[in-house]
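note to self: the first set is below, dont mix up w the second
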Amino acid sequence: MRALPVVLILAALASGCAIDPFQKGDGRGTATAATKPEPAPGAGPSVPAPEPEVATPAPEVTPEPLPPPPPPKERPKTPAAKLSPASQALVNQAQAQRRKGDLPGATVTLDRALRIEPNNPLLWIEMGRLRMDQRNYPQAESMGRKALSMSVGDDRTQSAAWQLIADSLRARGKNVQAQQALEKSKSLLPH
């Protein structure tokens, strides 16, 4: 029995029998004409025009100054690169072979030294000098750059690597780059 009143209320709401809350009534349940103007036929619902927004100036904010950057860190110094006694003996042998003009023999000897100490930048510089004697200038530069990457913090070895790079660039006619490499070489030496 209780379901019947709920159904009746829902039916009344669905049929539109409810009074519009914006209409004025005379208090006896009858509604008078709404105070809203009726839209013109075919004009669709009337939407009030939005009020223009008034731009208010934003308060001026001054940014806080950034803190000063930290001072540059000094590169850590590493001890100068040295050759082991076995590698030093092979380098001496290769230099003697170069002086005699035996460039292929010097290459084999330096390759043996590089198998003993593959991460020693001095051997790569020596091999680069040998490549300069062989007129293989691009490979000489490559060896100099390899030595440069292996000797971070060792100014004397890096200076020698930059010198090799400068010589290689100058031999190929790249004088501007050669001068820059030479300046880097000189800047690493103690004054």
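second set (the one i keep forgetting abt)
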Amino acid sequence: MGISRRAAEQLISEGRIRVDGALAQLGTKVDPDLARIEADGVLLPASREEKVYVMLNKPVGYVTTMKDEQGRKTVSDLVTDVGVRVYPVGRLDLNSEGLLIMTNDGELANMLTHPSFERKKTYRVWARGNTASGLARLAEPMELDGRPLKKPHIRIITDKGDSASFDITIHEGRNRQIRRMCEIAGLTVTRLVRTNEGGVSLGGLEKGKWRRLSESELRLLRGE
């Protein structure tokens, strides 16, 4: 029912709108997806928006937000053709890249970001420094902001003594967590790519592009 707010208020004033069987009152807030709304005795369809789930391969140089006060490029610029407005789940900082899930499903977003759910995330890291001692330190107990971190899983890809690449899987989602862990270990991150979240892999998705998640990927994210 595409009517203006003024027209809707007129209908309410005339007693022509009922919400869950009761006459609607001006100023009353209702959830149009949950409430039973009738106009002149005719049930109005729910305005529930289609739930959309996409994976974006975020490039370096994009801010993980919908709008940036400094005028920087945002991830929202890359998903304008999705068809509905989708929001980033979690964050990847300006200089990080890789898998970023975006959706308009607030329930799933909360599930993926709330600490109690502990969705694992894997990153491919390229770093400089004393890699022998640094990689060993990463595997030891560590704290951030006075709170202990769960031991990560580390798989070394290359190790040349002063530079290394490795996969690291973490359980938390602290601010700049991988970079800060590497700093504690005496390593300087030169590139950081998120490759997996909750069992869903980035795969060969082209940088800066997005695709819809499959039903099987959604089940993984939901822990089903």
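remember for set 2: Residues 120-197 form a domain with the Alpha-Beta Plaits fold (CATH 3.30.70.1560).
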